Amino acid sequence: MIRVEAADVPDDRALKTPDRLRRRASRLLSQLTMRSDRLITEGLARANARKWHYAVLASLQEYGPGSQAELSRRSGIYRSDMVGVLNELAERDLVERAPDPDDRRRNIITISARGRRSLPRLDKVLDDLHDELLAPLSPAERDQLVQLLTRLLDHHTRTS
């Protein structure tokens, strides 16, 4: 499923990437991110979903209804893209929009019953994709990797 760049793998399947590059965490993270994104995007597409659909549904399930601006902050989706994502979810009856009683100019978005039923199916799809992505790691190593990545992301999110 994950393709390696042609420049990285010669005919004998031995990696040609210079050691200097293979020791750079930034490059390794970048390369893995590209492969991970492709794997997740293609896997969710087979389930007729996108990663932003999952992010919005997960946010609504965990934190409850919210405005488009709140959902943008919670999920990391740009405000300008949120309308399109919500339109797709609403067309599939996965979310419901209702006018905010405190401010009729904005909508409050709620996960629908169908959205709540879809979320565990998407969890399973992502669990399987993560198993594929992290196949070389033991369960303990997977947990450690997630903890380390979370710590790095939290640090850089606070300082930016």
Helix content: 55-70%
Query: In what range is the share of β-strand residues?
Result: 5-15%
Query: Termini separation (Å)?
Result: 34 Å
What order do the strands of the largest sheet run in, or round the barrel if closed?
Answer: 1-3-2
Shape: globular
State Rg: 19 Å
Sum up the structure in keywords.
mainly alpha, 7 helices, globular
Q: How would you characterize the overall build of this protein?
A:
The chain is built from 7 helices and 3 strands. The protein has 160 residues and is mainly α. It has a 3-stranded antiparallel beta sheet with strand order 1-3-2.
Summarize the structure.
The chain has about 160 residues and is mainly α. It has 7 helices and 3 strands. The chain is globular.
Outline the secondary-structure elements.
Layout: H1 19-22, H2 25-46, H3 51-63, E1 66-67, H4 68-75, H5 79-91, E2 95-100, E3 103-111, H6 113-133, H7 139-159
Helix pairs in contact: 2-6, 3-4, 3-6, 4-5
